[in-house]
Design brief:
The structure holds 2 protein chains of 2 kinds. By secondary structure, chain A is α+β, with helices and mostly antiparallel strands. Chain A is built from 32 helices and 19 strands. In chain A, a hairpin with a 7-residue loop joins strand 11 (640-654) and strand 12. Helix content of chain B is 31%, strand content 24%. Chain B has helices at residues 48-56, 78-88, 104-114, 119-132, 148-160, 178-193, 205-208, 228-231; strands at 6-16, 21-32, 37-41, 63-68, 71-72, 89-93, 166-170, 197-201, 213-218, 221-226. In chain B, the strands form 2 sheets. A 6-stranded mixed sheet of chain B has the order 6-7-8-3-9-10, sandwiched between helices. A 4-stranded antiparallel sheet of chain B has the order 2-1-4-5, covered by helices on one side. Chain B is globular. Classes of the chains: A alpha+beta, B alpha/beta.
Amino acid sequence: MVAPLPLLVPLMPHVTAVTVRLAVRNALRRKGEALLVVLGSLLGTAIITSSFVVGDTLQATLRDQARTRLGPIDEIVLVHDATQITPAVQRIIAKPLPQTDGVLPEITAQVAVTSQQSGSGPAHSEPDAFVQEVDFDAARSFGNDPSATGLVDGGPTPAGTEAVIGADLADSLHVHPGDRVQVFAYGHTADLTVRRIVPRVGVAGFHPGFASRAPNLFVAPGTLEAMAAGALPGSLVPEGRVLVSNVGGVFDSAGPSDAVVFELQIRTAGLGGIQINDEKQQTLAFADQQGRNFSRLFGLIGSFAVAAGVLLLINIFVMLAEERKAELGMLRALGFRRSHLVRVFGLEGTAYSIVAAALGALLGVGVGRIVVQVTEGIFSQGRRGITGLQFAVQPSSLAAGFGIGLLIALVTVWATSARISHLNVIRAIRDSPEPAPARHGARVAVAATAGVVLGALLLAAGISRAQPIPALIGPALVAWCLVPLLTRLMSRRYAISLPGLGLITYTIAAFSLLPSVFGHSDVAVFFVQGIVLVSAGVVIAITNDDQILWVTNRLSASGGGLATRLGLANPLAKRVRTGLLLGMYSLITFALVFMAVFAAVFQAQAPRVTADTAAGYDLRVDSSPGNPITAAQLQQHAGIVAIAPLIRSEAQFQSDPAAADVTQQLTGFDESLLAHGGPTLSSRDPRFGSDADAWQALLTSPDLVIVPENFLATGVGPVRDAVHVGQQVTLINPDSGRRHPLTVVGLDGSLDPAENGAMVAARNLPTLVDSTSASRFYAKVDDRAEAGRIAQELQGSLVANGLKADTFRSLVDDRLDVQAQFISLLEGFLSLGLLIGIAGLGVVMVRAVRERRREIGMLRAMGFASSVVRRSFMVEAAFIAVQGIVIGAALGLVTGYSVLSNSSSFSDESLPFTVPWLALLALAAIALGASLLAVSLPATQASRIKPAVALRISD
Amino acid sequence: MPEPILSARGVRKTYRTAAHDVEALRGIDVDIHPGELVTVMGPSGNGKTTMLNCLSGLDDIDDGTVLVDGEDIHALPDAERTAQRAKRMGFVFQSFNLIPVFTALENVELPLLVVGTRGKDARALASAMLERVGLVERLHHRPAELSGGEQQRVAIARALVAAPAIVWADEPTGNLDSHTAASVLDLLFEVHAAGQTLIVVTHDLTIGARGERVLQVQDGRITADGPPSAVLPDQPRPPRPPRSTVRPNRPPSMWSPPYRSSSP
């Protein structure tokens, strides 16, 4: 990287040429040192790049649904009653539809499908199979690219008892061409023979919702209509869909969607039960949004690690400067200006930074790959599962990772260079320490006063505009600008410690002091909070660390005591360096402990959430909307003592008229849900004296609704933009477009493990939406029966209804497991920062050994055993690591407690605080163990230094 | 004649590099007796410091034996050789080599702590020793806050505080001006007066002339061994600094080894 620079030297002015030559020679002189510097600084870039890569992958995977789930499909006209599809199609194709190149009608139903038990294995079932009737020839000519439809090799349209099966369903049913499957719908059973398997692409891969699996089955036209002829009340009858393809390819055809939707609305106006979606546009927008969300979340979590990387970089350059102090002082003595020194040091640092940023960006791709793999494992368990993540790296992400990493490194390098250039020539040449700071002059006092005022203004602005970040930065500015003013009144120790302690107290208490400002903080706020807290904690620690000397001075003169004295001497003497190392450890530990607190809290609340959700029942029983079970069927089952029927539907909701509408679950309930206590609310309208009162109010008023805490929430991480009690939301009937204002009177927890979405009275549902399905029940089992066993029995006996029965505890556990694993993933990602800290400590110790060679030689000459020298380095590393871990853990625990007790960022409920002892111990043990391991090599090197060689005693 | 405190026979040392080998010591034979003041002289690059390193056990040798109080120090494992150094030797180097993060007092304590002296006692003894070298006002100053002469006095105090049998000084005045150098030498030579063995490596004839016995080292061999008058050409006597600048108001009796001596 630096090699070509000398070629330019002849073209430069003399002094510039010398500075370049110096920079290049210094960089090349000690390749090992250069390697350490590069290694230390590349990790930050790697973390930044990997967060972009995670976003790219999520985005690419979700965007790929445009190909696998939609293909040529751009808009969908949903006709809720399939019998009404013909008039809809006639209207749509009455004249050419502008900017489109295809219209394809199909009949669909969600029903249960099983494979027939063969001699070699058991039967398999799929309760939510998506059965379709579509003309294959028409489908292949739909759009401008037959291969995008997924039916190129599908053969003719299925006829009679033939079926063509999608690859995902074939996989879950373990069937092959020639095998038989059974379709259960509307009380009838159809035995079909699988003729062919088609891939999950385009029309063949289309299914409603965003799930990444498509359990599709194509049957002969008329099959569903025949089966639905005797459909029971409450069944969701077959639906019709008119698929529309815009002109253009798979990914570039969504442009005219708004116009096409508008035209479709005009043409289908007056037809009841019609819903029009710009499906591809939504898919691509969702993909882009989620990609951005994940980039942001991982980027923010990674910020802790990046901040640790910046501290490491500063540390490395401070050490480098100390090593070169005499050389730089001599250059100044020779007449080089400060700007020349900045250039010498800056150029060398720039060379390291460029190499480190390039390597870091590449390493980031690898880190991103690992994160993606772990993410896939976690997400595949979710309701909106994302499997088959497509690892993707956008060149722009690589460039952004490289650019941001390089920028951070360059700012660090040049700022450090500028600071170094202010060295005193004589002190530099004589290698004398900088004198203690003198009392600050009037100019500093004026600047400090201005800083205090500015900080106060920031705080005021933050409070008045409910902006948490200025409300955190303002007090920090006030506290640190007070230091030079307070040194006029008191000792430096108190002048630093008092504002520092005040800042920590405020920052921790901010969540309870200013709930309106910090109530719904996102990850960025916690990052700033971490930086403010840790910097205050570290500054207080290094200011008061010398108090530890009275302990060390009383240590015994035994080997251990001696090694401890030696080991503590350097970190206590070199406070800036110690502070930077402590900062790295504390920052990462703070974030890890903070997250561990939440992981522990979430896990610990499983029994309570189960009780709150279950409403006194034991099982949630879902059946296929196309072949639902009846209350009578369920009650006949042995062990079931009570049931509460729920009516399921979907509707669009808006938090305010300007917001985009979001499709959410809508569930209707009746008095039976409240018969055994009813679900517990996490918050409710104060007008109601109890949760039961709030639920009862819904039964009588059609304008009230109870929703989960994360209803209409956007993004990932802490709940953001969610609704609150008393807020009015608008429900939009997806079929008619009619709008109903609803007032939120309660929130029923943050997890919604039962997946009910918005809750309203069942009797009011018909006034809100047209299409409903009576396919969900809560069931209470006999006290003597075991709920899990009853659930299994139900599933085994009611396969034809596509029945799924789950205990509430298992639903809660599933939800919490996904949450816990996601936190684990973030913790793992954050642990990269710990790696930086540990690697940084190793790098600093390697350099320390070199720096202290003569010192070590003298100790050895005086008779200090090599083991004492080795132990002294281990003690030094342990002192820094333990102190950093303790500061970070303490601040993390206290902050976690404060946030849980006072903030609604994670839940409206006051979550019970739990100290994650196991995680704390594991973190401390791993961090300390790895730190000692990283330092053991330089410590051993130090102990092996030959005294005569180290002292460089030569004649 | 008492038994020698240090006896070297056939000591050889070669520095090997990728490019070439340098035979630094080519068979050193020497006996040094308790209480002797020996100056090692010779031109630069002829093996004086290598001899100090090898005879004191700071560096390994390729051949020969070095007996200290009758014990072959190069036959000992490193840990034991290190322990021997701690008990029997003190060192003063040209570049002081004080531990920069320790105060003068803490630096002087170190040799006592390493031999197991209790912390409180070590502190008292180190304080007393620094008082004796005239640095009672500088106990809590770090090396960077001391002048070169003061630093070397701390180094001497550190070398003497555990009352070692042998004190090695390698160009102890090399970094000092003549005035300060003279006072430092006075300090060192008073050590000898108190009965400790002092071996000073120097290329300065005026310093060499103040020894009782001079070893002339040339090309890795001892080429002359005898009193200064026999080994060195006539030297003008250096001007002696006023005693008051060295250690004001101190009786000579204070320079007897105060704690322990392993010399017979």
